[in-house]
Amino acid sequence: MMWRFCAVLIFGVLVSVNGRLKRSIDLIAAHGLITQEKLPYDTMPSSYHLSLHPFPADGYFEGTVKINVTVQHKAHQIVLHVHPDLLILHCNVTQLMPPDDEIKRTNNSDAEPDYSPTPVNVESSRKVKSKPLFNIILQSPVKTGAVLEVFIRFTGRLFNDTSEGLFRSSYVDPLTKKTKWFAATHMRPNMARSVFPCYDEPVYRVPMVVSVARHKNMTSISNMPLESTTQHELREEWVWDTFQRTPPMPTFALGIIVSEFSYMTFNISDDDDVHLRVWARPDFITAVENVPEKVEKSLGVLEEFWGCPFPLPKLDILALPNYQSTRPADSWGVIIFKESELSARGSWHLTHELVYQWLGALASPFWWSDAHINHALVRYVTAYTTMKLKEMNETEPFNNWPMTMLYSIYYEFSKRYPHGKSTAIKQDSTSAKTELIFRMLNYTLGEKTFIHGMQRFMSDRQFKTFFGDDIWMSLTEQARFDEKLPQPITVNEIAASWITKDRLPVVTVTRNYKDNTASLSQRVYLRERPHDVPDQEKFLWWIPVVLIRQDTMHFGNTTPYTWMRKEREVQIENLPGKDSFIIVNPEEIGPFPVNYDPHNWGLLAKYLCSENRTKIPVTTRAKLLHDAWNLAYAGDLSFATALNMTLFLKHEREYLAWDPVFTLIDHIGRHIDSSSVHKKFQTYVRILLTPLYEELGNEPKEGESDGIAHLRSSSKVFLCQAGYKPCIEEAQEAFKKWMESPDPDEGNPVANQYICPVFKWGTLREWEFGLERVIKFPASRKPSERTYLLKTLAGCPNDANKIEKLLNITVLEQNGNFTDNDIYLIFSMLTGGANGYTSLFNFLRKNWDTIKIRFEEKPHLWNSLITSATTVFKTQEGLDLVSELYVERQTEFGTADFVIEKALRNIKEETKWSNDNLPVIEKWLDQYIIMNDKSV
Question: Which Gene Ontology MF annotations are present (predicted)?
Fold first, then answer.
């Protein structure tokens, strides 16, 4: 037996958390498993012996399990998890060791102790209605300390329409043309109960011995190396494979695969004592030949990060055909991927699952509430490892982490009502924010301290469970030992100020150039108007103030200049003079935007336009640009200042610096596209992007980076949207091939990137051709192709006549080729641009009576129509239109009455924004266009 332990780090005294009742930071209460009823603690498992006999071709499995159970409190029943689909065939209970009081009596007597197994009478055993539980009721209660063996025989179905629990799937052997079946497990998060009766909660970590029956033509895999193979007692062509006893592990970490796959074998790690096998169907095995090298490199970084080797003696990685789960199955020592994921370039997916081998398997969350912090830390360590591989000159694909994640959570948490009603969005954004807090701590405590803190945590909790607090405690102890965090500050206190709020702060820096000081203030960052969030004055964070000065430019020093310790305002001194800028929060060390006084913004814009701009790292250049336009959008900064921050892009060729600009173009473009300023803005976009696109060229060059490819693709998309003639002509030329094809309904030979420019800038004939394709769309083709075509038909056109024609056909004429879902989709797509929602509004107003009758019994369509037609206006003209309609039809809105009232409130707020900002934007654009010698 070979379990590999982390070496204990002696950085002071390691604190072992024995009391498991303390509460972790309440990260998210929405995850369904958090509220799941826990098993009673009357009995606890100490080991499993699981025997499984899957019949992959026949679609079912049989099995037995022996669970050694220790009685914690006098118990009259044993409660296990059992999925409703699992059929229990037999159950009995045997006492292996007597209770504590009997052992004491025997020890105090001269009699030889008799600990032979004795049957325990079972009164009844049954599933609990409406719960995934199995109750074994004993005739007499068993006292504390008794050790019991629970034996259960069971059977269940192998499903092939889902990749959960113990499932099956198949592929066709290209040589024999025969169907090959295989069976595999995906137990996370709580699907072990669908395979065998068990204590299916993460707190129960116990060893397992697994035996698997297989046909002699097949191979079986489990968490540990194979120990023995014996002949099946009933079937001549079958054998039993028994695997070595596992370390203590949760039930979700169990992995079993039975297949006829081929494999490659390697020894990895410094001592060559980790046995790696990569598995795939025989005709796919060559597609994963580079996996061992990627695994070895990722493991090298991870072993150094955690301060301990890979914790098991072997690792099996499989590429499964027809694997349907959205994420890989990371059993301990067995990882299952989709074929496309395992064969893909780069190592992010591999690294992500390898991190779970330590964090989740070697150390497991105590309960599901801590699974979120586990997930966030896994994502951070994955990103850390990927970045280390890039630093080692590995050929990793383009990755703009953490910018994309930062931009999305800034957007989400700055809404008046973050997440809406979506639990999934809340879980994801909160996890992303927690991941960024780990990144912030890595910078502010120092990478060495952060990693040693993680090693301290892992050495303390290996083969055990943990709370989120255990992670913060280990970081606190390490930071204090390294004198990076003075008493009484704790990392838990810092982290909690971020994790427990569905908000982010904005820090405003106001410099006093007379005495070289600055005032820093924090408040809630609100981008979406109006800024009337209740109790926002109560929100305060622990904010690290990392400061860069133009006169030193030392971006490698990420030690905070000071901390805002949940203080509304702090003062800092000894800053450079009025000719030198400062940058707060460089490299997005903390997830918060920063505003400056106009003079400091001006210094930054001027410096970025100089040849020295690359002295500011590209991530910080991107941050300055992103912060500026988001603050302007929120009404906290002049748009003239924000647009000045884009001037340096004339010489910029790094995709990370351009990325915020494409978002700016999209957001600002949508906001002003109903005004006269929009045409000037499109001219600005063409002036900005044309030199970049012409320099990059239309076709990729040999050996170019993924970043350049992304830059070319994005610049082309936005140039097309802005009416760049070469782009439109290229799109029309490609579209012409479809129009001239003998059977245009057979398939779409045009790349999706060309369709929207044609429908937006092309002729009515081209658009009508697309409409005809939707109407005549063959049932044999993928519905998603039709959906995309319908989306572009509705959402792309500039011409109101095209939109009106589509609405006439679908709503008034009630063409049978269009469903209610199609109409709902059309309404939704028309909100994407002023031409769309203005045309929809005019159509509604013109045909009110007819539409009202048509939708009388379809309130969901009526509400959708009113919402799409009235809520998106952003100018006084739009406010007047909607107000007039409201007065005209005030008593006729029915179920959509609340929609129109809310729309009027929102449009008033948007109108105020337009009145404040459009003159500033227009004045700046006029000067920009004149300077670049272009005409509107």
Answer: aminopeptidase activity; metallopeptidase activity; zinc ion binding
